Amino acid sequence: MSVGERDPHTGHQTTGHEWNGIKELNTPVPKPVWFFLFTLGLFGIVWTTLMPSWPSATGYFKGLLGVDQRQAVRQSIEEAAAQRAAWMSRIGEESLSQIQADNNLMRVVREDGRTLFGDNCAACHGMNGRGNKGYPNIVQAPMMWGDDPETVLHTISVGINGTDPETRTSQMLAFGRDGMLTPEQISLLAGFVKSLSDPAAIAGESEDDIAKGKELFAANCVACHGEDAKGLAETGAPNLTDGYWTYGGSRSDIYRTIFNGRQGHMPSWSARLTPAQIKILTLYLLDLRKQAAGAPEVVAGGQS
Ligand code: HEC
Ligand code: HEC
């Protein structure tokens, strides 16, 4: 075996090493590999010259192109803030219906509204606005005070039994505690009121009792809740026939409401939020209602 011997099959020289009759060929490194290594090396040199790269005792080599990611980030934050300020001033200036018709502004409303709602409203009305016991479902239930945008905005601004001089006021009288009706009369009323939204409940009452309840209702309740019990916006007395309950819809919940009365408290937001924020919340809430109207109905508010 000698160095420089040629392999008859491939024409390559051998290295001179041989194991059990197998000889090692002296094959050169393939050209593509050299090419790849060279290109990579060149790229490395060029890139680290152009871009910020090598660390030094006092900082780092800034690169010939002067690229600075930190500055780019700062700039894009400034741009976003300027854009936001522009959107906010438009939301402040434009009317509710103009904003509703503008998809870009509504996108801001949905983003900001979600946060504002979470921070200010969810504690009482729930994150999805569908209510908790004692706090109405404001996404699905019919709005007691009216659901056109200006009215909703006013309700949110002044509150209900709130501190604003113009606050809406609502009070359900304590018919039992204040001795206006006897417990028997209140029980008859509870049975009648329950039957208004739940016809199956009539099965548990005698026809006679329902008739007596109806009479008591006509004498004591229609002034605020209306002849048809569907509520009156002027008094803030809710619809008792729609199956949505703020204070619970079981017979005993209704009994307790009539016995002790109710006076819900909804803060006056004019004192705590800016006019633009109240606008955003109004539009966000109406948007949730529109979406919910398309979705299958879930009666969640106040169910015990
Ligand atoms: C402290 C609890 C509480 C908070 C916080 C609260 N609400 Fe209310 N809200 C209520 C109560 C209670 C009612 C029902 C009052 C009544 O009928 O007497 C109500 C009623 C409403 C109504 C009227 C619904 C109708 O039927 O007309 C709207 C609209 C409303 N809230 C929106 C909001 C928005 C928006 C926020 C956040 C900015 C908010 N609420 C925060 C307790 C709250
Ligand atoms: C002075 C006006 C007034 C009169 C009279 C009145 N209500 Fe009410 N009622 C209200 C108001 C306002 C509310 C809403 C209170 C709230 O949400 O804070 C209410 C709430 C209720 C609720 C609770 C509804 C719910 O969503 O949980 C029931 C039940 C009810 N009233 C039944 C009656 C019955 C029965 C009578 C007659 C005995 C009656 N009310 C008389 C004003 C009145």
TrEMBL record:
The main location class comes to membrane
Q: Keyword DNA-binding: yes or no?
A: no
Q: Where are the transmembrane segments?
A: 33-54
Q: Which PROSITE patterns match?
A: CYTC (PS51007)
Q: Which UniProt keywords apply?
A: Cell inner membrane, Cell membrane, Electron transport, Heme, Hydrogen ion transport, Ion transport, Iron, Membrane, Metal-binding, Oxidoreductase, Repeat, Respiratory chain, Transmembrane, Transmembrane helix, Transport
Give the protein family. Belongs to the CcoP / FixP family.
* Protein name per UniProt: Cbb3-type cytochrome c oxidase subunit
